[in-house]
Amino acid sequence: SKARIGLVGLGVMGANLALNIAENGFPIAVYNRTTSHTDDFMADAGALADQLTPCHEVETLCASLTTPRAIIIMVQAGAPVDSVIDSLKPYLEKGDMIIDAGNANFHDTRRREAALKEEGLNFIGMGVSGGEEGARHGPAIMVGGDPASFEVIRDIIEAISAKYQDSPCADHLGTDGAGHFVKTVHNGIEYADMQMIAEVYGILRDMDGRSAGDIGKLFEEWNAGPLASYLVEISAHVLQASDPISGGPMVDMIVDKAGQKGTGRWTAIEALTLGESPMTIEAAVGARGWSAAKEAREAGEKIYAGLEVQGGAHAILDADLEQALLAAKIIAYSQGFALLDAASKEYDWNLDLGRCAEVWRAGCIIRSSMLDEMASAARAGLPNGQLIFADGFAEKMKDASGALRRVVAAAALKGQPMPAFSAALAFFDTMRKGRGTTDLVQAQRDFFGAHGFDRVDGKDHHHGPWGSGLKSF
Ligand code: 6PG
What we know:
By secondary structure, the chain is of the alpha/beta class.
């Protein structure tokens, strides 16, 4: 008998996704370019092997599937996806579908979808979050592409996904690249959330002199409150782990240079292209970049030693840090939702922000106890496009923003860098000031470029009486 679905790419994520599909009772055919890998995978599959059809050729894979065919690709994003698509095409028929489950750039997904459509093939861009564990036991799944094609595989995708209460954390969110875009923004928020937690860790370690283990215990307490989330929980966990070699905290032995594969950076790039500035996410991407310049930082530590303001800064209370993290996190989500909305308009996706947030409630890396409330707020419509103005969240911001302010101020006096927190506060204060300072920027632009400006009284006079005669420069 034939398999319902196929999968190409038995790396960590692909192998776990295949086992998840098999365990949910869907017969699946699998293929990996290195055939010995397929054999090893089958040897480890145990009882699930019954549901799995190993294939050593792409042709056999395609011949093993019921039609219309549905084939998941789980390979490294970029050129490898195109080469897998090319290798499959000769064995596919009109109406078949290819599903890219990797972390693709959504522009690539849009290009691939359009090109395959011309050949009568359907292409689904599917963002999958939750790491290895999620792939095996229930990830969050963000789907983009032709909605009718998704209906063909909906039962499988919902079955393998994480569940929030009984609701599957998987859905079709929009056409072409919508799923991969939502996954990209998910990752941008993930970057911001991780960076903010790390900034709090920095204050506790560098200003308070606390041990990693103590900080881990504090995070564990926070994980029982409003900050309850996967990322706070794993941070509590890793901070309390010991290095098997030195016996000290594991984190103390880890080089402070962070890697990145691209999704956070893409979030910032796409945002800027759309005229959005999710500065918490940009700061998190930037902080990873700065972290890589370790030698420069070490040199800077010598050149600029001792510039902290002595005295003056009050001690930061744990409760303030907790509230500040809450406020900064709400701001990061506010920026993420605003970006989703801007992209939805630009690409005609008609994204349901409430549904996006619902899909994030379980299985994914940014899952947290706040997401259900965020989903309700998004569903009700975000005032002026911002979560920080929504009922419930505005109250939380009023309660917590003082703590954010105290933390950023104290850190600044003591020379403790908080790029994401500072960006969050700058955004918040900008958004609660009806009259900003770009009147001067507009005047400057008009001075040197005759760009013109609008007047506050609406009168029809759009250039300043600048004259000439500068004294210098
Ligand atoms: C997830 C993760 C996962 C991965 C990303 C980000 O949602 O399961 O986001 O996709 O961690 O690739 O990785 P980098 O930090 O390496 O960019």
